[in-house]
């Protein structure tokens, strides 16, 4: 088939500040002084008229740790609120919540290198071959070294092609499948009794919870053959070492945190955590989504993942910052958008995020953003969100024009350095934030990124031992790193294996979670289940990757299995109308043999061509606030000739 011709979407690199004179007037060029004055005046006015909680900060998971630290400090010290969050809420907030509930820490428990030296790898809800290609190279080395890989995914992805077995479950049935695996491990006598008795709580309640989920019962609900479930259970439990990895196929559900807890239960049941080569790994998509949370750019934790509700934690930061910190959690990203609707949130400072196109039910998100009194966007491109702003501030690109650090999903903190000079009048994020703080009565001066990092180190025990010099010497270090001499362990929670109860610390509780099907049910009007994800050639909403050609890129399609394409009478390249209960888009068809009847697939990479998030549902996890991007109900309609 001839490749479909596409026009590349070129986003304008921001090189000078922009302001808007009236609410609906055009953006026009301004000086830095004028732009910063207008931005600060809007924030000041909002706080005076509506209180500190009428303000919110959207921090950036692609910017440095240092920027995220200063952004959350600006929110808490200058504006006096804990309303700070990032796109972590859109993807892996359930991972952080689930891991924290089980282990008291929100990071993955293993290093990437351990995947190369394990016996069994379970990729659950993760097409890492496309979404995390660097990590997948470690997976391939593990397979080469003899590891057996199992892929659990509704689609037979390119990751599944490398698996010993593919378990093609129905969307939204991860908990029944995990419970069936757990029950089989219990009934087969494969529980690591010594670990369970020593290091966990709630086993008896968990065993009772999963008892109804026989292999046969799970097969009926999940669509996975009973024999395949049994094989996975035995392979995982019998392995000396095993890695359980997941991505957004687990988290982007209305019960994403429960999904994460269901998987962690399997690691607790078998003792596959707290040892080299055995652990649980949420694979983070952005280069610094882990670091943003670690730096406190989330509404419930101060830097170093220290709980805001703990008076001792607050007191330490209040002394260092000479301010009072609200003794309550702020708004999550989900809460923020609901508060925009209700009128409680009036001003937003958005750094490096594009929620106008990344949020579920994008039409609703745009309407809510438009209702704000004051929107300031600090970015490197004129995104769809920036086009709506009252003030636009041009920043440097963190991955090429900025000094600092980032933290990947194995908790490794690494140095980044400016390689090129930013264009035009673009300025460092931290310098912009400090100038904004100055206009609002706070005289902050940092002599470069290292000064910010050293302030963070003084307040976060997990990062104290990570000087810039040591990070450079060791090419990165894993947190927690509390010592300036010793090197940290590559894996977490080895304490759970200690014989001394005092050294072992808090036991890890089993998560007692129930099956809860997708909110957006299929029926006669909407008979197809749409799930979304990523492709290897593109990145997020395409702002950065869309301007560059790729031999792999074919634009956005709605992907159907051969049987559904035949049933609807459509062929590859034919444009069809795709409709959910929230909206409609027109997209060409692609046929994928990795899909099963009743399942369609789309991505969010080309919203200017096909705005997939007009279809997705804002049904949110009540614990983490993440939306159910993975389970929308749609219908497919042929277009009339000439339409």
Describe the structure.
- By secondary structure, this protein is α/β, with parallel strands linked by helices.
- The two termini are 23 Å apart.
- The chain contains 23 helices and 27 strands.
- The longest helix has 19 residues, at 32-50.
The low-confidence parts are 1-7
How many whole angstroms does the radius of gyration measure?
24 Å
Mean of pLDDT? 94
As laid out across the biggest beta sheet, the strand order is 2-1-15-14-13-3-4
Strand content: 15-25%
Q: What's the story with the biggest beta sheet?
A: 7 strands, mixed
What oligomeric state best describes the polypeptide chains here?
Answer: single chain
- Which overall shape is indicated by the principal axes computed on the Cα atoms? globular
Label the structural class: alpha/beta
Level of helix content?
A: 25-40%
End-to-end distance, in Å?
23 Å
The total strand number stands at 27
Task: Please work out how many helical segments DSSP would assign.
Answer: 23
Give the SSE map.
Layout (H helix, E strand, L loop, with lengths): L17 E3 L6 E3 L2 H19 L4 E4 L6 H14 L5 E2 L7 H11 L8 H4 L4 E5 L3 H4 L1 H12 L3 E5 L12 E3 L6 H14 L5 H7 E2 L1 H8 L4 H8 L3 H13 L3 E5 L1 H4 L4 H15 L8 E4 L6 H6 L6 E2 L3 E2 L3 H11 L11 H10 L4 E5 L3 H4 L3 H9 L3 E6 L11 E4 L9 E4 L4 E5 L12 H11 L9 H11 L8 H6 L3 E2 L22 H4 L3 E2 L18 E6 L24 E3 L1 H7 L6 E5 L4 E8 L7 E5 L13 E4 L6 E2 L3 E7 L5
Parallel strand pairs: 3-4, 3-13, 5-6, 5-9, 6-7, 8-19, 9-10, 13-14, 14-15, 20-24, 21-23
Antiparallel strand pairs: 1-2, 1-15, 11-12, 16-17, 17-18, 20-27, 22-23, 22-27, 25-26
